[in-house]
Write a structure and sequence with these properties.
Radius of gyration: 17 Å
Order of helices and strands: HHHHH
Shape: elongated
Strand content: under 5%
Helix content: over 70%
Largest sheet: none
Distance between the termini: 26 Å
Number of strands: 0
Structural class: mainly alpha
């Protein structure tokens, strides 16, 4: 796949993002089991509750991953500058990873900064694809 060879870092980021999701799922499941939470029942809506925070981490990641994949596909198929796409993908991943750790630690301001970093990565990937059309 010669088309994708130049995007190896972005492809690695896709795999690492999948691993991050898997870890988030395990953390949320273990937190649920330790707390004795009954599946399907409402979780106490409080940032003081680790089970709530761990479930929100997973949900928040799910909210952006579809956009990430769509923007990557757009960039790949538009033959965007691979350096820009690869760096932007890494920025997205670092932002999501930071968001995860800061959410677990209940560091609200840093969590918001990390979310902004991940959004910057997403916007940058989209712009890289858009530039190829003009």
């Amino acid at each position: 796949m010669e088309l994708l060879a130049q995007y190896q870092i972005s492809i690695l980021v896709v795999g690492l993002t999948g691993l991050m999701f898997f870890v988030q799922l395990l953390v949320a499941d273990v937190a649920s089991i330790k707390k004795g939470h009954i599946p399907g029942t409402i979780i106490e809506q409080s940032h003081d509750n680790f089970l709530f925070r761990s479930s929100r981490v997973f949900a928040n990641s799910n909210e952006t991953v579809g956009i990430f994949i769509l923007f990557l596909m757009f960039a790949f198929l538009s033959s965007s500058d691979s350096s820009w796409v690869n760096i932007s993908s890494a920025v997205y991943f670092i932002g999501r990873l930071g968001h995860m750790f800061f959410y677990y630690a209940n560091l609200k301001a840093l969590r918001s900064v990390a979310f902004g970093v991940s959004l910057l990565g997403l916007v940058s990937i989209f712009i890289s694809g858009l530039v190829r059309w003009f």
